[in-house]
Amino acid sequence: MAYPFSEIESKWRKRWEEDGVFRAVADSSAKKYYLLEMFPYPSGRIHMGHVRNYTIGDVAARYRLARGCRVFHPMGFDAFGQPAENAAIKQKVDPATWTGDCVGEMRSGLKRMGFSYDWDREVVTCDPGYYRWNQWIFLKMFEKGLAYQAEAPVNWCPSCQTTLANEEVIDGGCWRCKTPVAPRELKQWFLKITAYADQLLADLEKLTDWPERILTMQRNWIGRSEGVEIWFAVQGSGQRLPVFTTRPDTIFGATYVVLAPEHPLVEGLIRGKPQEAQVRRFVEGVVRRTKQERVAEGIQKEGLFTGGFAVNPVNGEAIPIWVADYVLMEYGTGAIMAVPAHDQRDFLFAREHRLPIRVVIQPPPAGSDPRGSDPRGSDPSGWSEAFEGEGTQVNSGQFNGLPSAEGKRRIAAWTEEQGMAKRTVHWRLRDWLISRQRYWGTPIPMIHCPGCGVVPVPEDQLPVVLPSDAPITGEGGSPLAKVKSFVETSCPRCRKPARRETDTMATFFDSSWYFLRFCSPRSQDLPFDPKETAFWMPVDQYIGGIEHAILHLLYSRFFTKFLRDLGLLKLEEPFARLLTQGMVLKEGEVMSKSKGNVVDPDGVIQRYGADTLRLFILFAAPPEDSLEWNDSAIEGSWRFLNRVWELVESQRGQTPEGQTPSGSDPELRRKTHAAIKRVTGEIESFKFNTAISALMELRNAIEKNNQREAVEVLVQLLNPFAPHLTEELWERLGHREILARTPWPRHDPALLEESEITLLLQVNGKLRSRLTVPVGLGEEGLKARALADPAVRKWLDGKPPRQVIVVRGRLVNVVV
Question: How much of the chain, in percent, has pLDDT values that exceed 70?
Answer without folding.
Answer: 95
